[in-house]
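Archive entry. Fields below.
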Amino acid sequence: MTSPDPRLAPPVVLDRVSVAIGGRPILRDVDLTVRPGEVVTLLGPNGSGKSTLVRAVTGLLPHTRGDVRLFGTPIEDFTDWRRLGFVPQRSTASGGVPATVREVVASGRVGRRRLLRPSGPADRRAVEAALDVVGLADRASYGVSQLSGGQQQRVLIARALAGEPDLLVLDEPTAGVDLPHQQALADALGRLKASGATIVLVAHEIGPMMPLIDRTVVMRDGRVAYDGPPLTQEVASHTHHHDDHDVPTRHDHAPHVASPFDWERRSSQ
Amino acid sequence: MSFIDLFSLGFMQRALIAALLTGLAAPAIGTFIVQRRLALLGDGIGHVAVTGVALGLLTGTSPTWTAVVVAVLGAVLMELIRERGHTNGDVALALLFYGGLAGGVLITGIAGQGAATLQAYLFGSLNSISSADVWSTAVLAVVVLTVALGLSPQLFAVASDPDFARVAGLRVRGYNLLIAVLAAVSITVAMRTVGLLLVSALMVVPVATSQQVARSFRTTLLGAMLVGCAASVGGLFLSAWLSFRVSVAPGPTIVLLALAMFTATWPLGVWLRRRSRLMAPFPEVNATPHRSTDDHPHDHGQDCGHPAVPHGDHVDYVHDGHRHAVHGEHYDEH
Ligand SMILES: Nc1ncnc2c1ncn2[C@@H]1O[C@H](COP(=O)(O)OP(=O)(O)OP(=O)(O)O)[C@@H](O)[C@H]1O
Ligand SMILES: [Mg+2]
Ligand SMILES: [Zn+2]
Ligand SMILES: [Zn+2]
Ligand SMILES: [Zn+2]
Ligand SMILES: [Zn+2]
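PREDICTED_STRUCTURE:
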C-alpha cells in the first residue's frame, strides 16, 4: 500500500483503527488522515482516547484492527523514525542521574545520529536552535531537576524540536506552560509549519496556537466525534477536569508485594 | 616481607590489574543502571551468578565463564520479567535473587567444595587470580567499556525516556537487554576483586559519590569511573596492608573505601547544591517598593560577605531572607 511519491503521501493515515489496552477496547473504528503541512488539534474530555490515539500513531501501542500508515508506509514496516518528533504527556525530564538541560535536548538528536559517532556541528546547531525556541538557552547547563514543572515541559518540547521532525506529535505540550512561553512555542510551531512540517497537537487550551490550526478533531469515548474546521475548546468545553486515571509509568526496584506472576497489567499511559 | 615487596609478587600485580579494570567498568555501566532507577539490579545478577560459579566448581570448568553465562541468562530473564510483569515483576525478581544464592551454595556443597572456596567468589580474594583470569577480566572489561561509552548517547536516551527513544527509532528492548547483559558481564569482571555479594556497591556507590558534585550526566559518568578506580585500587592496597596482621578480603575494604568517599563528598554536595540555588540569577520583574536603610549592619559591597546575585542590570545582596538592591541613599526590596 505504498503510494508512488512518498513526499506527497499523507504523514498519518488511520483506517478503521481499533486499539485495545489489556483486552479492553479503547479506540474504536477511528478514521483519520492528516495531510502534509497540516496542523491538526485533537480535543476531547479526559479519558476520551487522545493519548491512546497518539500512542498508536507513534507506534507505542499496537492496534488490534485496521491500518495505521505513516508517510504512506504501514507502521509495521515503517523505519524512517527520524522524521517523527514526539512530546509525551506529562513525563518527567529527569532520571536517577543528574543531566543538564542541554544533554536532555541533545538526546532528541539520537534518532539522527549514527552509532559510535560523535555529534557533529549540525547536531549542535539544532540543539542550540531548539533551546532558543523554548527560551532556555541561558539555562542550558542547569540540571533538569532544578527547573520548575513548566520549564521541564519546555525542555521536552525542545528535545522533540531538536530532531527537526517532518511530523511532530505533541501530547498536551503546553500543560503548565505560561502564556508568554505558549506564545513562543506557537511561533516555533508556526516556523516549523512554514518549513513544511506536519503537526498533530493534543490540547485542552489552544490559546496562542489558534491561528496556526487548520483542522480540529474531537474525540469522545474512543471515537471521532467531530472532524472539520478549527473549533475552540468551547465545543469540548467540559474538558477541564484533572486526571483521575493517572497511572504512574516509572517504577523502581522497591518490592511492591502483589501477585508475582500477574503478567497482564501493562502500563501504557 | 615489606609492604613494597608485596607488589613484586605476581598475584598482587594480577590483582591490581583486575581491580583497575573493575573500577572502570562497573561504575560505567552502573551509571546507566542508576539512571534507570534499577540500583539493585546488580545485586540480583550477583546473586544469580553465585549459581554460575558453583556450576563451574561442579563441572571443573572455569568459574569465570560459567558465571558469565549464568549471569547473562539471569540478567536477560530479569529484564524480561521486569518488562512484562511491571511492578509485580519485583517479587519475581526477588525469587530469582534468593534462588540464585541458595542454588549456588547447594551446588557448591554437591561439588564437594567447602564454604571457603565459595567465599573467595562471594567477597573477592587477592591470591586466587590466575593469569588466565586476568586475561578474561581484561577482555570483558574492554568490551563493557567500549560498548557503554561508545553507545552512551543511545543508552542515555533509552534510560531517561524509553517512550521517546522508541519513537526516535531506537530498539528500546534491545538496548535494555544490552544494559542488563553489560551489567552481568561487569559483575563477573568484578567477581574476583569485590566478590559477587558486594559487587553491586561498586556499580552504585561511585555514581552516588560523583552525583554529589556533578550536574551533568557526562561528568557523573566520568567521575564515577574515577571514584570506582580509586576505591578499588585503594581498597586493594588497604587489604594487602591489613593482611599482614589480620585476614581481610579485598571486597569489604573496597566497598568501605567507596562509602568513605561518598561520606566525604556528601557535605560538599550539600554545600554546592545550596550555593548554586542561592546564586542562580533572579528573574527580571519590575515594580519594587523603595525602603530606607535603617537597621542595616553595613553598606553592602563587593566583599561584604553577602551573596551578590545577578538581577538584570545590577546585583541583589541576599541577607536575612531579603533581596537588598542598593539604590542611591536607600535600598529597594527586590
Ligand atoms: N494503561 C492503561 N491501562 C488501562 N486503561 C488505560 C490505560 N491508559 C489509558 N487507559 C484508558 O483509556 C482511555 C483513554 O485514555 P487516554 O489516556 O487516551 O485519554 P486522554 O484523552 O488522553 O485523556 P487526558 O485528557 O486525561 O490526557 C481511558 O478510559 C483510560 O481509562
Ligand atoms: Mg492524554
Ligand atoms: Zn529606590
Ligand atoms: Zn552585605
Ligand atoms: Zn534586584
Ligand atoms: Zn538588606
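CURATOR_NOTE: The first strand of chain B starts at residue 290 and ends at 291.
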